[in-house]
Amino acid sequence: MNSQITTYITLVTTSGVLSVFLTLYTFTKRNEIPGSRTFIWSTIASAIYIFAFAFELASSSLAEIKGWTTVEYIGMPFVPVLNLLLIFRYIGRRVPRATAALMFVIPVITLIMVATNDLHHWFYKSIYLRADTPTPMADVVIGRWYIVHGAYTFGSLLAGTLLLMSQWNGTGKVYRKQLLILICGQLLPMTGAFLYLIGVTPDGMDPVPIIMCVTSGLYIWAMISARMLTIIPIAKERIFESMRDGVIVLDASDRLIEYNQTIGKMVPGIHPSMLGQSLDTVWQQLTGEPFPVSCRMDGAEEEMKWDTAGAAHHFQIRCSVIRRRDKEEAGKLLMLVDITPQKQLEEQLKRLAFYDGLTGIFNRTHFIYQCKEQLQSTQAEGTPLSLILFDIDHFKQINDTYGHDTGDEALRHVVNVCTQQLSADILFARYGGEEFVLSLPGAGTDQAGALAESIRSALEAAPFMAGGTCIRLSASFGVAQSTGADQPLEALLRDADEALYTSKRAGRNTVSLFSPAQP
Questions:
Q1: Contact predicate 475/391, CB 8 Å
Q2: pTM of the model
Q3: How many helical (H) and strand (E) elements, i.e. helices and strands, does the chain have?
Q4: Calculated CA dihedral for residues 431, 436, 439, 445, nearest 10 degrees
Q5: How sure is the predictor about 119, in pLDDT bands with cuts at 50, 70 and 90?
Q6: Catalytic residues
Q7: Tens digit of pLDDT for each residue in 221-237?
Q8: How many whole angstroms separate alpha carbon 75 and alpha carbon 108?
């Protein structure tokens, strides 16, 4: 056998051994390598192709050459597709199973075409032995499907190379070494195949198996030293799009230059066509108003309320200044954190702390807190403050006769009637049970008494319907006015309570004004 062919076969065999080593190494690390199954199948297919090519070179007849050529195509057409799928996995793009299956259609057809070539000659028009060679070597005349196969193989390798190159700017420097090796793993075989097809390789030999010796060696070195494929960098844009918080990127002139998918969900209506416009202009188009938050300082945090689809959403906006290497401001990054659940919880806690759960008006605790402030203010100003204390007549009888559910409805009915008589600045609360209280800053006894009479009349004229039964409700009222700068709220409440009991002793459904002389 020619020494040159022997050397070539040795190099090719070495390449095959490296592919087998890669297969075994990846198998042992399969739990650490994302996409390990795809890479293992790729190295197996490469090993089949390379060893079959070595046996082809060592063949002694045309029949043997044809046989080993068929074996080569059990592996070779599938390698570019498997590598492309691995690259998609590496850059974080999901390929649906149906699409992945379709990618193998042409390689499968290629294998069938090569195996049955003597029947149709669609892949090779002819295969013949070269003249004047020390060992049998074959030349071919390509057929139509060979062109399809070649174009698909070249296209797969080119697509993989371009996809990897597109990740360069978004990949950290520490990961660029493994990215460069992966690019070489695509680019070198593609270049070798191209040179082989145009007929410029020495003795017309296919250089790809030898090139795969180089790429396999690079892979082994990178997987051991740089943990290639074990530690896969996550591209910045994937992080950007995967963030649960909304992100808006502005340039130095506060123009919108980028936003992530979460912003699209948070702010329906925002569209890529708005890129390049100022944030205020974008917000004006969306809401009719400029952007409500001024994020001018690095680290500033503000809150914003946004109403969409009939629901209120609350966002905390955090501003970070983006700077160039020379420390000059290049733009801003606004992060929108949805704090709606926290705000809703705050609102619920506030309602529990301030409001009566049954009627929706203030509870006793909040009334006392607010009324003390009103009393101090009116005492400092030298103006009066009056309280109206009232309770529903014979309420226990309503509960005993109709049940507590009806009693609850009666309380809500009373509140509805009262609120129709009250202005928004009057403090109105449920004082306890069936008892209610109102605070009227700036009002004297006569004015408060007139309001109490208005409420009493309205209650009497608004019968309460319960289960088809008309229940007439009435209430007894006590009115008291603050007497001086040193009178505490507790004393004023006692005065109003005393006037209330005067109304009860008078037969109920009446209004009584407190007088210091009354018994």
A1: yes
A2: 0.52
A3: 19, 14
A4: -130
A5: very high
A6: 434
A7: 766 665 555 555 555 55
A8: 10
